[in-house]
Design goal:
The chain is mainly β. It is 0% helix and 62% strand. The protein has no helices and eleven strands. Strands 2, 4, 5, 6, 9, 10 and 11 form a seven-stranded mixed sheet that branches. A hairpin with a 2-residue loop joins strand 9 and strand 10. The radius of gyration is 14 Å and the shape is elongated.
């Protein structure tokens, strides 16, 4: 079993930076992908960025050049330079692949509020 706990959400002014963390515990397989997602009020959850176990990263166009995803000993961090429209709950997801299947694990989310 895997547990993910996000932290770092807060109120920040537009243009400011915020670091979110996702602490992973439990059985973490070598072949995995960590992703950050966000869900704004009244909207669907959307992908923000992913990082593979080999360090390869992928960002949606809206955050390229402003967000950074990284991983260090199971604690995955994202640094932001935020816009008011990026107010949302931010979630981390760990996808693990083994010879018996692919499994997704989600954290409970952390709230980010951006003031204009």
């Amino acid at each position: 079993q895997v547990q993910l706990v996000e932290s770092g959400g807060a109120l920040v002014q537009a243009g400011g930076s915020l670091r979110l963390s996702c602490a992973a515990s439990g059985v973490i397989l070598e072949n995995n992908t960590m992703g950050w997602y966000r869900q704004a009020p009244g909207k669907q959850r959307e992908l923000v960025a992913t990082i593979e176990n080999d360090g390869n990263t992928n960002y949606v166009d809206a955050v390229k050049g402003r967000f950074t995803i990284s991983r260090d000993n199971g604690n995955y961090r994202q640094m932001n330079s935020l816009k008011p429209e990026e107010r949302a709950s931010y979630y981390c997801k760990l996808q693990q692949k083994s010879n018996i299947g692919t499994y997704d694990y989600w954290g409970q989310g952390t709230q980010v509020t951006v003031s204009s």
